[in-house]
Amino acid sequence: MARTARRQKPVAPPPVQAAGDLVTIDGLEVAFPITGGLLNREVGRVHAVAGVSLSIRAGEILGLVGESGCGKTTLGRALLRLYEPTGGRVVFDSVDLTTLRPEELRRTRRHMQMVFQDPFSSLSPRMTVGNIIAEPMRAHGGADGPDMRARVLELLDLVGLTAEQAERYPHEFSGGQRQRIGIARALALNPRFVVFDEAVSALDVSIQAQILNLMLELRRDLDLTYLFISHDLSVVRHIADRVAVMYLGRVVELAPADVLFARAAHPYTRALLSAVPEADPLVEKQRRRTVLQGDVPNPSDPPSGCPFHTRCPHARESCAQAVQELVEIDDGHFVACHRWDEIDTDADLRVPAYSGGVE
Amino acid sequence: MSTSLTPELMPDPKLPVTAEPEVVPARGTSPGRAKLLAFLRHRGTWIGGSLLVVFLLMAALAPLLAPYDPLAVNADVGLTAPSWAHPMGTDDFGRDILSRVVYGSRLSLVVGFSCVAISAVVGTLIGLLAGYFRGPTDSVLMRVMDVLLAFPGLVLALALAAVMGRGMLSVIVAVGVAGVPTFARVTRGAVLGVVNTDYVLAARAVGCRSTWILRRHILPNVVAPVIVMTTLYLAYAVLYAASISFLGVGVQPPTAEWGAMTNAGRGVLVQGWWVSTFPSVMIMLFVLAVNVMGDSLRDALDSKLRRS
């Protein structure tokens, strides 16, 4: 039944990608059904990702920030089709991932990998580290033998682990070491694109810095492109070339990192930036802090119009009427706000720099 | 004894603080190995295990151990009480109870292990498929299991045995099928706990096939509860098989089988208590041995189920 349905589907126009873009996300939507009642009928939907369009340029690190529950992780997973998108398209290197059949998708996965947030749950406790790192190669037809063994050792070396650790089990490693194992696994197939989903959030600050530096080194040496998902603005500032800010399943601002941290235009971004803790009390005194009122609205019942209007200090009645799409206000600086040009963007936010990065 | 430390027991502050040399095992310790050790260290393993070994030896060496032919009828010694010649007495046909109990262990063990094999293999497979694929597969398979579960196990086994006709094979199939839903439920539950973990998602992200994920990631994580269930159901299976024979649907006389023997002695319980008692004591001991060992397995394998 599913097969005939697929055949009858009109042929999608060939994917269009601007030159230099590796990943193009076009109106991506992911909705999870809320089931209830006697027969598990769908009683509602949570729009975790509510129409996101973004492109990731080859070789760049795109930071994706937002509060917990804003849909960052869902976006990252839907991007690799670990979650099925309910709308929109994802184009990876001129291939539309959203229409691939399961087997084609499986083969395409070698080019795009993921590093998970929790270094403790993302490694199988029953496999040796060597087997964990070799698994992607086995999945793609690699034969066991001296070549694979050599590749595993090469990968261990690449992420700063030693050859004898290949025979050990994950529970014998620390969080930072485990995250290195996760990175080695992600790099095993020489991917071109890696999604780091809160990959350093579970680590100590000193270990975070090591892993971030490792990531930067690997990008330089292996010509990689990253999507770096995080809620930690100072970490994103340290590593990202461009930053996208998500709120309630939508991207509200997108700009080069230095521009975003200096001249954020969206009231939500400004509130986020002003919330970054500052260690120096003298600097702290001079900062102007925007404290948001209320909580993030329930994504199963999002507010009308601009999703942020319920908490925005600059909201007018008109903000509740229509959704504002992203508009380019400066070269490469996109904002989704009705009133961005009325807000005083010169007020100094003084976002503290990332202090963990000890090179 | 004085409470203060003698000077020579005090650490010398001038001694250099040497760093503890890091112990690097040549090979990592796998969680499975640690669990095996925990199992072997458990008291129940030894109690239940040694009893079980006795039963296995008894079944294997039946011809050597049994003093008489289990089927030989001897009218001269009909229904005699336990004595040196017949340690467990004789039944009303003059057959030696001890010999029949020893030979009966063969049948009971074969029936028990075959039943569990059917239940465990079929049930685990169904549970794996239902839990991994969810959706319609899950609904259809589990509704079928619910139907089977709706009958009490013994009634279901009895009905199946009655439909398939009398005999050992139908007892095995009937008790085996009756155990499938339990295994399917337990496995499915364990699969649901594993299928959404990050490492299964990670396996999918690197491009592993479903069959690989099921075999390499899911199955190893559900074997623990399945093994525990296997031991517990082994006891039930022997009990069910004996009950079916006791009720007259299963193994037919004159074959020596514990349940059938218990049934045969029912009529002469007042004149000869030993006819029913010894085979039923064997059933009880076997069930006890398997249960004790199952408990220690559960303690070693499934820390979540442990009731300290």
TrEMBL record, chain A:
SUPFAM superfamilies: P-loop containing nucleoside triphosphate hydrolases. InterPro entries: AAA+_ATPase, ABC_transp_ATP-bind, ABC_transporter-like_ATP-bd, ABC_transporter-like_CS, Oligopep_ABC_C, P-loop_NTPase. Keywords: ATP-binding, Nucleotide-binding, Transport. Residues 25-273 form the ABC transporter domain. GO terms for molecular function: ATP binding; ATP hydrolysis activity. It comes from the Bacteria. CDD domains: ABC_NikE_OppD_transporters (cd03257). It holds the Pfam family ABC_tran. It comes from Pseudonocardia sulfidoxydans NBRC 16205. One of its GO terms (biological process) is transmembrane transport. This is ABC transporter ATP-binding protein. The lineage of its organism: Bacteria, Bacillati, Actinomycetota, Actinomycetes, Pseudonocardiales.
From TrEMBL, chain B:
The keyword Cell membrane applies. The keyword tRNA processing does not apply. It comes from the Bacteria. Its main location: membrane. It is a multi-pass membrane protein. The chain crosses the membrane at residues 45-66, 109-133, 140-161, 222-251, 271-294. One of its GO terms (cellular component) is plasma membrane. GO terms for biological process: transmembrane transport. It is found in: Cell membrane. Keywords: Cell membrane, Membrane, Transmembrane, Transmembrane helix, Transport. Residues 105-294 form the ABC transmembrane type-1 domain. Signal peptide: none annotated. InterPro entries: BP-dependent_transpt_permease (IPR050366), MetI-like (IPR000515), MetI-like_sf (IPR035906), OppC_N (IPR025966). PANTHER family: D,D-DIPEPTIDE TRANSPORT SYSTEM PERMEASE PROTEIN DDPC-RELATED (PTHR43386:SF1), OLIGOPEPTIDE TRANSPORT SYSTEM PERMEASE PROTEIN APPC (PTHR43386). Belongs to the binding-protein-dependent transport system permease family. This is Glutathione ABC transporter permease GsiD.
